[in-house]
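Re: [ENG-882] Designed sequences occasionally contain unexpected residues at chain ends

Forwarding the minimal case from QA. Structure tokens:
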């Protein structure tokens, strides 16, 4: 055996594994590598973006970047917060100041008694209590129905499950105004049972429970749960209901928190549907109740009522904004 053959074969024997065949680089890559070796420089990485790192390293580039960034952030902040500021300051103004042209940005005199007047005259305590009942019931029914449906579509995988999910998602493409009349007729005369659910909490609870968007979010998260966890529980004799309660729900708290917050906020801010199904003044939520009495109240009292109605939603958002973003972006488990 020749010396070269022995060396090549000896290399393979010493390593204990066959040598890998590395495909030759493309001609363009070979030319770029040769040029970089000749010049003594490392090949530059391709940069994709609006502003290159070289531009940001210059003084002029940094100044322009921060000016544009601060201008955009401040502009969007003012645009989104100005309606809230106008509502809060409008409640502190007198009716004459609100009717002034051009309007003033700051109240001349601050009077907090208008909030107590709005609470008493508009009976906001009753409307808030009704809204809390509707939101709590809708939250419970939403979790019971949507979590079960998403778990069945994700882990139980029934026959025609993909077709059922597709039909659920198609409902998101239909404008809500289109299904408003059929939904009202269904609530007025419940099929098969023939019950009239108007002026009852069921008229808000049942439609809120069926939400294709929530089912999609939950299914997307359930798909990321490792199958090995469920198979191990099945080997221990756990039923599907037990697996859902003991394994799936504990690891799905981020997305369940998002669905809970969004379901409560949907009921809290809804106006058209409660206006149709809750015509009795004693059963109205706060959005419909304020609108029904707005013609009889001064503008500053009406704005004070709107501020009171907005406080719960703002507080919930401020406390749970991180949970909302974390749940929406959660799609995998670490471990």
């Amino acid at each position: 055996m020749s010396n070269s053959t022995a060396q090549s074969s000896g290399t393979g024997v010493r390593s204990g594994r066959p040598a890998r065949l590395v495909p030759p680089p493309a001609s363009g890559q070979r030319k770029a590598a040769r040029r970089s070796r000749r010049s003594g420089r490392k090949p530059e990485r391709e940069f994709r973006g609006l502003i290159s790192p070289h531009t940001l390293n210059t003084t002029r580039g940094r100044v322009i970047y921060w000016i544009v960034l601060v201008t955009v952030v401040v502009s969007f902040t003012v645009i989104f917060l100005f309606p809230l500021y106008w509502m809060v300051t409008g409640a502190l103004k007198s009716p004459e100041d609100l009717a002034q042209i051009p309007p003033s940005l700051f109240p001349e005199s601050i009077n907090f008694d208008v909030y107590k007047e709005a609470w008493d005259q508009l009976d906001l305590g009753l409307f808030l209590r009704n809204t809390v009942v509707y939101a709590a019931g809708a939250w419970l029914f939403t979790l019971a129905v949507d979590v079960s449906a998403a778990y069945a579509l994700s882990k139980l995988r029934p026959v025609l499950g993909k077709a059922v999910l597709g039909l659920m998602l198609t409902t998101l493409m239909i404008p809500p105004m289109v299904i408003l009349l059929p939904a009202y007729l269904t609530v007025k005369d419940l099929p098969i049972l023939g019950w009239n659910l108007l002026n009852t909490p069921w008229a808000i609870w049942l439609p809120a429970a069926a939400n294709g968007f929530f089912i999609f979010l939950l299914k997307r998260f359930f798909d990321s749960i490792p199958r090995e966890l469920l198979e191990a529980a099945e080997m221990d004799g756990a039923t599907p209901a037990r697996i859902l309660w003991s394994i799936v729900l504990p690891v799905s708290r981020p997305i369940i928190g998002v669905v809970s917050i969004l379901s409560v906020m949907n009921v809290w801010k809804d106006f058209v549907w409660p206006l149709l199904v809750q015509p009795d003044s004693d059963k109205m939520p706060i959005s419909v109740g304020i609108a029904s009495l707005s013609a009889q109240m001064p503008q500053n009292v009406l704005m004070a009522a709107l501020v009171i109605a907005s406080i719960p939603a703002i507080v919930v958002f401020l406390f749970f904004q991180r949970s909302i973003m974390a749940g929406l972006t959660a799609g995998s488990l670490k471990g």
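QA comment: On inspection the terminal residues look reasonable. The chain has two domains: 53-111, 116-329. Proposing we downgrade this to a documentation issue.
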